[in-house]
Amino acid sequence: MAGNLQKILHSDTYQLAHQDLALLNTSSMRGVRMLLEISKPELHFEETGISSTIIVFGGARLQEKSAADANLEEAIRELDTDPNSTQLQRKVSRARNLVELSPFYDAAREFAFLASRFGQSDTSSSPCCSSHVIVTGGGPGIMEAANRGAFDAGCRSIGLNIDLPHEQSPNPYITPDLCFKFNYFALRKFHFVMRAVGAVLFPGGYGTLDELFEVLTLRQVGTQHAMPIILFGRDYWTRLIDFEFMADSGLIDDRDLDLIQFADTATEAWDLLRDQPPNQRSFVA
Q: 233 Cβ partners below 8 Å, 6+ apart?
């Protein structure tokens, strides 16, 4: 009987339900996992006094100039070994373009520094950097630059990382106890907008475009309260997306164009955001 008792005590069914990881990872428990992804960051933000955030989106492949220059030099060396390779020629061309785009890394870093320094200006009744806290996707590129700018200011910043099929590590500039990993893209987006008083979008790829149209749609239909949506780099964005054509085609209203503002410097972007109230939850859940 003693042997049978030991089997009982070590059986999966005898575990407390919330300690049974095998159970929690079944498809039947998907709703529970989703609830946990909603609740865990929300509870922590409340405990740590985060009253408002500024979203910074942008490409993971954008680097500071020194790194972009090094990648270009490596691509040129590879091309020298096979000058007729169209694939290597393309690689050099893309690397050269990323060097041209590298100033956006510095701009994102500077913008985050300005916003974070403002957010900690009044610490008399709340923790340091409780308002206008920078929130990014937690990865490299523009995300790293924004978290780094907050770090430069001696401020907190948030990273909302995602569990992907290919390995992605959080950048080292995120405040350690404000870095979260998500399984569900939808719930990650929920937390991006929950406390946001503004969004600044730098050049990026599919992920950045997805996030842009997410916040634009929320603003358009009124789910998201009024907050600035700033596209950083007018030339890039107006070449990439013809918003005027969408309005001329009748697919969006002319007033929907007013949901977008443009900035070309960190100071200009910050000036468009600095008067947003710091304690207004902007997402209607």
A: 104, 202, 203, 264
Q: Average pLDDT in the 72-90 region? A: 97
Q: Which two tokens stand for residue 134?
A: 């920078």
CA distance 225 to 231: 18
Q: What are the structural domains of the chain?
A: 38-64+103-273 (3.40.50.450), 65-101 (no CATH)
Residue 128 banded pLDDT, cuts 50, 70, 90 = low
**Among all chains, which residue has been given the structure tokens 């050099």?**
92
**pLDDT > 70: percent of the chain:** 93
> Which residue from 193, 41, 216, 196 is spatially nearest to 132, judged by alpha carbons?
196
Distance CA 91, CA 75 (A): 6
CB-based contact 270:114 (threshold 8 Å): yes
- CB contact at 8 A, 120 and 78: no
CA atoms within 13 A on the CB side of 70: 6
pLDDT digits 0-9 by tens, 8-19: 778 888 888 888
- Do 133 and 177 touch, CB atoms closer than 8 A? no
